[in-house]
Amino acid sequence: MTILSRYLLRLHLAPFAFALGALTGLMLLNQIARRLGELVGKGLPWSVVVEVFALSIPFIVAMTLPMAVLVAVLYAVSRLAGDSEITALRAGGISLGRILRPLLLAGTVLAGLAFLFTDHVLPRSNHRLRTLYTDIARKKPTFSIKEQVINEVQRNRFFLRAATIDPATYALRDVTIYDLADQDRKRVIYADSGYLAITADQKDAHLTLYSGVMHEFDRSDPGMFQQVAFSRDLIRIEGVGNELERHLTDTYKGDREQSICEMEKSVHAAERERALARRRADLVRLNGFRTLVGLKPLPPDTALSLAGPSPYCRVLERWASWLLPPELAAQTTQRPRTPQAPGVDALTRMREKATSPRVRPQPATSAQAPRASELRSYEERARQAQVRAAHFLVEIHKKYVIATACLVFVLVGVPIAIRFPRGGMGLVIGVSLTIFAVYYIGLIAGESLADRLAAPPWILWTPNGIFTIAGFALLYWSHRSGVARRRRAPAVAGGA
């Protein structure tokens, strides 16, 4: 690394660290302002509150890292241009490409780090945060019950639904209670109104109901039914706010809680299900016409070639034993596999055999048209599989797009800062906000269109493409203007 490269990178280091810390802090303060009252109101210990906001930081950093790159480039390069250092470098024979080279290299390194961060750290933090929010929502019912929703007050035991809820007094109207605590009997209670309150020790809840009726069913004897009317009834629900019960074995993962390799497997499974559903729909139509002409129906064909992992996932699998801890690497490499026929997933084949309608051979003399219900079923399965694959593909592209933005913002930020050397902080703030707004709107619009199948998932690359073209155009313009000034300089000096 030359002296010039070290000098340029050193100038960018302090603005980058300040911008990253400031932007992350502002977004974290916004999260705290929105969530703190709700979390404190549930009586949670401060360690849990701090954990909630700590788990929110990885998502914030993933968004603010490209922003910090743009802010640092605009500030540092505009300062260099304002002090005429860019002019001096170019007058000394150093081209604009030579000045840009170390910045592009640093942007590439940051893009790689951002990609690894969003693919490995962010999904795990999102999963833990979602699990923690689910556990918090179960802690105290008075702060989490919603109108017109069956709320789980006690896990798998007590459910409550109310048409209206007064958030100040927790007065309930049109109340329905599903009490499943007794293993032998099930109770359903309907009441005109009621009140919900928590005891002073924050452990139990008291539910007072007015003008209602109780239906009681005997699970062992379906013929037994008991109905009791009441004008006032008091129900005590024990242990609803005692302690926060943590569930660390939640295996469900949403699309934002999975890595790229995990989402690729989901995409391949959805695409396979979509292809099989379309093939079955075509087979139903074909067999319908074959039976009309007296031919024997054809059996379904489920042989499909499975798509392999991407090069990135193949590299991770190859280096898993070196990158992962010994116990996890052993589980990854020695996991037993289910025997399967070439190109056919045995588990998917068994599931389809159990759930999908069968095409039964019909006598050649009976003519029947394709059943519309089977066609609609297969077409709906194909559409749902396509939507599910689109959701995962959008998240995969989003990880690449956000990481690549670190490099794109270097490319577009340098010529803008050179073009307006005296812009100062006004230039940094104005240009940053404009580019962030366009980038954010482009990502949100592209994600919405791709999720609705109105556009392919690669539409998320549109903001990067626009700013890349703009960056190259501005760089060419800056290069041409610099060359023109150097060519005019000897003529002016000679004339003098």
Label this structure with key terms.
6 strands, alpha+beta, 496 residues, 12% strand, six-stranded antiparallel β-sheet
Q: Which class best fits the helix and strand makeup?
A: alpha+beta
Q: For the largest beta sheet, what order do the strands appear in spatially?
A: 1-2-3-4-5-6
Q: Can you tell me the residue ranges where pLDDT is under 50 for at least 5 consecutive residues?
A: 327-370, 491-496
Q: What distance separates the N and C termini?
A: 41 Å
Average of per-residue pLDDT values: 80
Quaternary assembly: single chain
For the biggest sheet, the summary is: 6 strands, antiparallel
Cα shape: flat
Helix fraction, binned, reads 55-70%
Can you tell me the number of structural domains? 3
How much of the sequence lies in strands comes to 5-15%
SS elements, strand count: 6
- Tally the helices: what do you get? 12
What's the helix-strand series? HHHHEEEEEEHHHHHHHH
Query: What radius of gyration results from the CA coordinates?
Result: 32 Å
